[in-house]
Amino acid sequence: MLSIHSAAKKATQLCDGISRREVLKIGALGMGGLTLPQLLQAEAAAGIRGSQKSIIMIYMVGAPPHQDMYDLKMDAPSEIRGESRPMATNVPGIQISELMPGIAKIMDKCVPLRSVYGSPNGAHDSFICYTGRPTQNQPPGGWPSIGSTISQLQGPADPSVPPFVGLSPDAGHPPYGSPGLPGFLGVGNAAFRPSGPAEKSMVLSDITLDRMNDRKQLLQSFDRFRRDADASRTMEGIDQMYGQAMDILSSGRLADALDLSKEDPATRERYGKGSPAKYGDGAPRNLEHFLMARRLVEAGARVVTLNFGRWDFHSRNFSELRDTHLPWFDQGLSALIQDLHDRGMADDVSVVAWGEFGRTPKINKDGGRDHWPRVGGGLLAGGGMKTGQVIGSTDRLGGEIDSRPIHFGEVHATLYQNMGINPHSTMVRDFAGRPHFLVDNHLAMPELIG
Description:
The protein is an alpha/beta fold. It is 31% helix and 15% strand.
């Protein structure tokens, strides 16, 4: 939150006349205490590219039951198949859950994935969704998320909009609230995380030149304080970022993208509202985040991540799906995909929705499904991909991959390729200067891009 101090001197001023309280407030601009110049460091090094390609990634917190959504097993015993019934879609031969009528109507624009694997142990962590890699055997600093990697490689499409935005409030279980971490690419490539009052501080309206200079002085004072306090090289070159930081603060483009009151009322109604409250230790079921994601990529963001709900249904799996999660999720996701097509953005914006693993074929004694890392599911759309098809299959019980295993890394390779980045020749360097490819020996999916 940015604020302007009054002309009257405060008792707790720093040596340059700026109060310590004002200095600390600067660091809270929706970025977990990081300043805009810090976040823009790596972007300047990468340069501004002309591409307007984007990715919207929906992390389905806690791992949804694939066999109750995209991969129903009607021939399995009752303790396996559950309560969901199939619904025909607008693509002959493809059926999904009756609780997803919105997606069923636009299946020609979607690709259900029925054989996703790669989670090594079934532990709850968003990491594999955001990186395509497990958490084990990481280089110093850790693997960066796809948002941070694209921030490093392509920089901002518009100097007043951060390339990587995370619509993910903190959660009781920290990985549930992660937008994707920057890893060894550093804080300059962290997600910009707008939330609450930070939005109101992103527009400089009705401010005189003196007050604008005052705000600039506050930015400089805070960054000098942080730079002097940090003996590492992570702050090096930060002064060059003042200009871009002020672009973001003064242009209003980012704040406009986050201001849903500027959206057509009929469009807002189509997306719906959902609930802004967190679900347990998970994320909100906020349908307005789907709309906000579209507005952000339209404004120039390259990667937007959002976290939805808490799908860890060890008990009451079917009532949780029916009453608290799946209808809202279906509404938000189908509205987003159709909206991208209506606006002529579908070829440029890749959409992926998934969780960290699947759920057990057998329904437990509490009416739930437990962790099942052997196979899960997901949904792809947009990005110029060949849609209206299903990729992969599982056996009769939905517990083992029957055909076309799909690793998380393959999906990531495809997303990079959709962004105009060759995932097999492009490398990024870790803290020690060692180069790393973007994915681990996984090719882009030929079914989607061939």
